[in-house]
Amino acid sequence: MITISLCMIMKNEEKTLPNCLDSVRDIVEEIIIVDTGSTDRSKEIAKRYTNHIYDFAWTDDFGAARNASFHYATQEYILWLDADDVLLEEARQKLTLLKQTLDPSVDVVSMKYHYAFDEYGNVSLSFRRNRLVKRSKGFRWVGAVHEYLDVDCPSFRSDIAVTHRRVRSHSDRNLRIYENLLKTGADLSPRDRFYYANELRDHRHFEKAIEQYLAFLQTEEGWIEDVISACANLADCYHQTGDRANELRYTLKSFEYDVPRAEFCCRIGYAFMQRREYRKAIFWYRLATELPRPQNDSGFSREACWTWLPHVQLCVCYDRLGEYQKSREHHEIALRYRPDDKAILANQAFFDRDERR
Predict the structure, then answer these.
(1) Confidence at residue 169, expressed as pLDDT on a 0 to 100 scale
(2) Rg of the chain over CA atoms, in angstroms?
(3) Residues 6+ positions from 352 with CB-CB distance below 8 Å
(4) How far apart are CA 314 and CA 270, in angstroms?
(5) Which residue, of 21, 210, 231, 300, has the fewest CB within 10 Å?
(6) Rounded to an integer, what distance in angstroms lies between the CA atom of residue 56 and that of residue 332?
(7) What's the CA gap between 174 and 115, in Å, rounded?
(8) Is the pTM of this model over 0.70?
(9) Residue 31: which of 12, 11, 9 has the closest Cα?
(10) Region(s) of the chain under CATH 3.90.550.10
(11) What does DSSP say about strands 53-55 and 77-80: parallel, antiparallel, or unpaired?
(12) How far apart are CA 155 and CA 339, in angstroms?
């Protein structure tokens, strides 16, 4: 059986830290926490779980802080989490089993990251990250912001899911770090440029975000999943600025990099719905329901587009065309995905009132 060091960085995480550590404390052999300047009760709480708490002078560099946490690990493998992450019971059981069965030749294990949820608690955004690494390999973190583990070998793709439980709202911290880097004359890597564009978009600086996404695509050096996401995010930005032609252009451009994804099919379907071209909209929404999931699930996946959303829209489109049986069929599929959705339940009441449907 392998042994595990949990390595974390934190700052002012008193609201989330207990849930995180309670979810994993009995699975790992040691807990390493690097504190980057907490002024709340975080360190006091951490002392209930471990004596391995170290101070790190914050330098606007997340990669450096995470590397510091890895430095103190002593077990065979290192697991990393953020303080607002938890392992739910199913994930706890799977990680316990993985400890007992992992082939010691495996250097890296990736896990799904359930990052965002809808109002009903369903996963709405997920992606995959390398979470468990062999300490002896000396893997390092790269990047001041949106850092990543630089691994040079294939990872074992586990079905364990880490769940993100954000309490605090987004701040402008990451955006400030990027802008400070630019002020120093730093040359952003393609990956950093992509994430800088994301920060600009999240803060509604759409014109600046467009410039950075375009610059990122022009490098032709980005990871394929980031490139596809850049197309989606460009389409979002152009939508926000009212540029429908470029919104469609970069939606379609995503097809240059991979087979169609449901997210883009739904976007095209919506554009045709807005123009009341329901047959065309139906084509794209039906395609979204028929696509296989990408074999590489490392990129961002918006669950709504792969599950209930196209069926809701097909219900509307078929109703507008007077094809009520097909409309009801897709309504019922959507209802199976979201049995508590108020809008879908309202549709159910509509069908119940009108026997033609």
Answers:
(1) 61
(2) 23
(3) none
(4) 10
(5) 300
(6) 54
(7) 18
(8) yes
(9) 9
(10) 4-164
(11) unpaired
(12) 37
Q: Find the helix or strand (DSSP H, E) in which 124 lies.
A: strand 123-134
3-state secondary structure of 165: coil
Q: Tell me the CA distances in angstroms from 64 to 51, 143, 212, 235, one per residue in order.
A: 22, 8, 25, 34
Q: Give me the residue label for tokens 């949820």.
A: 117
Crossing angle of helices 190-202 and 224-240, in 10° steps, is 30
Residues of the chain with pLDDT under 70: 168-170, 354-357
Are residues 73 and 93 in contact, defined by beta-carbon separation less than 8 angstroms?
A: no
Give the whole-angstrom CA distance, residue 298 versus residue 110: 9
- pLDDT given for residue 167 in this prediction: 75
Q: What is the domain class of 4-164 according to CATH?
A: alpha beta
Cβ within 8 Å of residue 11, ≥6 positions away: 35, 36, 37, 38, 42, 58
The residue with tokens 């390493």 is 32
The string of pLDDT tens digits covering residues 248-272 is 999 999 999 999 999 999 999 999 9
How many H helices and E strands in the chain?
15, 11
CA distance 291 to 302: 14
For CATH 1.25.40.10, the residue range(s) in the chain are 173-353
> What's the chain's length in residues?
357
Q: Does domain 173-353 have CATH number 3.90.950.10?
A: no
Which tokens sit at 323?
Answer: 């094809």
| Residue 294, burial from CB neighbour count under 10 angstroms (0-12, 13-18, 19+) | middle
Quickly list DSSP for 35-93. Answer: ES---SSHHHHHTTT-S-EEE----S-HHHHHHHHHHT--SSEEEE--TTEE--HHHHH
Stated as kind and residue range, the H or E segment containing 133 is strand 123-134
* C-alpha–C-alpha distance, residues 209 and 198, integer Å: 7
